[in-house]
Every structure is written in C-alpha cells, then in structure tokens.
Amino acid sequence: MPTESGPPREQWQFETGGEVRSSPTVYDDTVYVGSDDGALYAIDRETGGERWAFRTDGPVRSSPTVFGGTVYVGSDDGTVYAVDTESGTCRWQYGTDGSVTGSPVIYNLTLFVASADGRVSAIDLQRKAPVWTVETDGAVVTSPLVVENTVFVGSTDGTVTAIAALSGDVQWRFDTDGEVRTPPTTSQTRVYVGDRSGTIYALARETGEEVARLDGDAPVDGLGSMTAISPPTAVGETVVFGNYFGRVYAARLQPELQGVVWKYEGMMGIQSAPAVVDDRVYVGDVGRVHAISLDSGERRWAFEPEGARRFRSSPTVADGIAYIGNDDGALYAIAVDTAAASRDSRERTGTVGHHDRHAVYQSSLGMYNYVESNDDGALGRVKRLNEALDAALWSDDA
Questions:
Q1: In this structure, what DSSP letter does residue 78 have?
Q2: What span, in angstroms and rounded, lies between the C-alpha atoms of 44 and 178?
Q3: Residue 376: pLDDT band by 50, 70, 90 thresholds?
Q4: How buried is 117 (Cβ within 10 angstroms: 0-12 exposed, 13-18 middle, 19+ buried)?
Q5: b or e along 80-89 (b: 16 or more beta carbons within 10 Å of the residue's beta carbon)?
Q6: CA distances from 339 to 14, 48, 119 (A)
Q7: How far apart are alpha carbons 233 and 280 in whole angstroms?
Q8: How deeply is 188 buried, as exposed, middle or buried, from its count of CB atoms within 10 A (0-12, 13-18, 19+)?
Q9: Sign of the dihedral through C-alpha 202, 143, 380, 94
C-alpha cells in the first residue's frame, strides 16, 4: 500500500461479468463487492486477485457488510446471504418478497434488512429469526440507517420513518415531496435525506421535525432546479451530495444557517455517493473519478480510466486507495492523493460501502468514539470482539 500522496494512478482492476453498482467494502486484506452478474466477490486487496466468488440468483447491488468472519449481502433474488469470509460458502440465508439492493446493517447482534416489498425487518442473529417487521406503502430500495438504537429508512412512498431498534415501534414519520431512493445519513443531532424532487432535508433525529431544507425555492446561492439527489454524506455539520445534473454541493442545513457552501460543476449524471478523506471529496460520474477540495470546492484532479463507463458505485477509500465499481464490469483500485481513509458519516454507519472502522459501530454505542479517535489499538480490540461474537453465532450449539 502506498504511504505517500501523489497523482492518482490505477493500481489494479478486477473484471466481473456484469455492471458493478455495489459499493465495495474493505476489511483487513480483502475487498468485497457485488456485481450484476449475480456474484459476491472477495478480492485480494494488494494484488486484485480473486479469492472466491459466491453466486446468487440475481444481480448483487447491495454493499456487503462484514462482521467477524461473516459477510452479509443482499441480492435482487430477494435474499440476504451470510457467507463465510474464508471459504466463500453460504452459512445462512434470509428470504424476503422483494429485491434487497441496500446494505444489510448489523447493530448489537441484530441484522436490519430493507427490501423492495416495502418492509424493514430486524433479525436476531442468535436465533436466526425475525424480531419485528415494519411495512411502508412503497418499495424500500435503500440501506437502513441505524443510530443510537433507532432505525431510519426512506421509501418510494415519499416517507422517512424512524423505528425503535429493539421493539419495532414507529417513532415518527416524515413526508417528503418525492420518492426516497437513497439512504439517509446523520450528524450528531440531524438526519439528512434527499428525494426525487431535488430537495434535501435536515430532520431532528429525536422527533422527525424538519429543521431545514434546500430545494429549487432556496436563495440565489441555493441548489436551483435539480432531481435525483445522490446518497448524502456528512462531515460535522457539512453535508456533501451530488445530483443527476452533474453538480456536487457542500451545504449547511441548520435553522440559523441554510445555504450552499460551494458548488462543483462539470460532471455528468452523478449517482455515486461522495466519500470524504482528509480535505478531499471523492465522487464518480460518467467515466471519471473526481477529487474536490472539501474547503473550497475546487477541483484537484479528475481520473479517467480507459474504457470506463458510468461510476454508479460509491468510492470506499482506505490507506490511500479508492475502490470503486463501474458499469464496464470492473472494480477499480486507484491510488489517490492521501494516505488516509474516508471519515464521513456513511463510512461510519455502513449505509453505502465502508472500510473496517465500521466494525466499531456494529458492536455497541459505547464504542462510537473509537471511530473518531482513529485509535488503531481500540479498533483491533473491537474487531477481535466481533470475531468472537461471530464465532459464537455459528457454533454448533448456537
């Protein structure tokens, strides 16, 4: 792995048999990613060589979630699979009545799954049985967001719903102006979500009350006319997101401060969620991966792999390498101008691709600060704890 910054360069590319819309997950020395060819792949992080491939009966657009020695992933065949990280064999599966395109999320030994049948389910991994199911009036094609014992989920019925993680009780529902097809994200007290009307909302996490919004009716420096907001990410109180018109925004959505900090133009049809690393924002569009200054919105570089098509996958950055899938069927590993790892809200909560620091968030709320402190010793202890918990889940007497 590179330790010094420099211009972007391709490290390797891994070819699959279909479009790679899944956002990759990086855990230890392996990259996990799904493909429209119906497979979940485990790829050697250093060489780009295949370790194993697990086949499903539908496209795999879900981002994998790793917990200990098991990787969980959804498929358009309506199933969530638990796959052994070493052998690539299926340990268990859970069926739904709709495709599972969002990431399964693990929190306190519970697996949260959303599916296109409009349901959100909590599954006790010790008993391998559902604890509760909540229905919406539309398809749920996004990942659930789990924060402080609450599950937040958007639906194509135009709602955002907050659900108590333990009981399944609906705490609040918020009506947006359009379909919600991208996962929400969070800051310390807010939930941010975009809809198909081109509006992004800041909601109070406890009550669901609208705190602020930006849309076509915003001030002159606002967003203007737009649709299809990409999955947002938050760094502190700044929200970064793109839209299908090819613009990337950094914005503040607070009662006393609503507006765009900067706007980056010149991209095309953004569906990739931004990743924030140090003072850089990385995001893909048609054939290119862009690096943008987080402070100013100025372009640092645009990297265009030969033959690449649309990047619908979102980049996951770890140890100076950005991993991102493309519609040409390849997963690209690109050395970027930092030796760090992404540090934004979607990485921490695991809604759209992530690296192994998400392991901290999976175990318990009390370990949250380890993520922010970048304490490698604490991370190692949490990963060993997760491995022990995972081994107990799959023991003969579990």
A1: S
A2: 41
A3: low
A4: middle
A5: bbbbbbeebe
A6: 22, 19, 40
A7: 13
A8: exposed
A9: positive
Q: What is the mean pLDDT of residues 306-329?
A: 94
Instruction: Give the strand pairing for 25-27 and 354-355.
Output: parallel
Cα three-residue angle 310-5-304, rounded to 5 degrees: 20
DSSP 117: T
Cα angle for residues 213, 116, 169 (degrees, 5° grid): 65
Could you tell me the two tokens for 96? 């739904």
CA dist 275 and 297 (Å) reads 14
Q: In the chain, what are the domains?
A: 9-393 (2.130.10.10)
- Greater confidence (119 vs 358) lies with 119
Nearest Cα to 134, choosing from 152, 146, 147, 149?
152
pLDDT > 70 fraction of the chain, expressed in percent and rounded:
91
Report the C-alpha gap between 393 and 109 in whole angstroms.
9
Q: In the numeric block, which tokens belong to residue 359?
A: 């392991």
Answer left, alpha or beta for residue 377, where phi above 0 means left and psi between -120 and 50 means alpha.
Answer: alpha
Task: Give 189's pLDDT tier (boundaries 50, 70, 90).
Answer: confident
Backbone angles phi, psi at 110, to 5 degrees: -125, 135
Digit-coded pLDDT (tens) for 205-243: 999 999 999 875 544 344 444 455 788 999 888 999 998
Instruction: List b or e across 30-63, with b for residues whose CB sees 16 or more CB atoms inside 10 angstroms.
Output: bbbbbbbbbbbbbbebeebeebbbbebebbbbbb
* Rounded Cα gap, residues 60 and 3, in angstroms: 32
